[in-house]
Amino acid sequence: FLMALHIGTRPVWLVRVGEAELQLDAGDVSSPRHNGDRALSERGEVHATRLAAYFSTLPDFGKARVLVCSHRSALEMAAFIDQDGMRTSVRPFLNPMDQGAYEGVQLRDFEAETVRDFQECFARDPVNTRFPGGESYSDFVRRVLPVLVEVEQQ
Hints:
- The strands form two sheets. A two-stranded antiparallel ribbon has the order 1-2. The protein has a two-stranded parallel sheet with strand order 3-4.
- The two termini are 14 Å apart.
- The protein is an alpha+beta fold.
- The protein is globular, with a radius of gyration of 18 Å.
- The chain contains five helices and four strands; from the N terminus they run ββαβαβααα.
């Protein structure tokens, strides 16, 4: 256990992936949704380019590892940061939380698009209530925790 502890300091960057392309609901151009695995949008590519430029100015960033989820937009963003891909590791455990049947439902539409029973359960216990066909916030934390431990032990 003690050998896994690190006394020194080192930077750890947690970066959210850049904006992805939107898929419009069929027939309703006013309701864009992020549905699953999309490419970076133009703004997402600009964000990735600027982030990569910033990281290139940091001392020792060339030795850093880049851990990404398996979604297309994350892989594209990693390619901007680590152009040869030699330091990039794909970790599916880092994929976004699976909201199942409610994937892509925006917060403003949550009440209108979810079942009343689910809303009541979620209001009582948002951490442990599973999305139908998906996972709960506590499931998500249990899934991501091993990757955080791996980062700490590096």
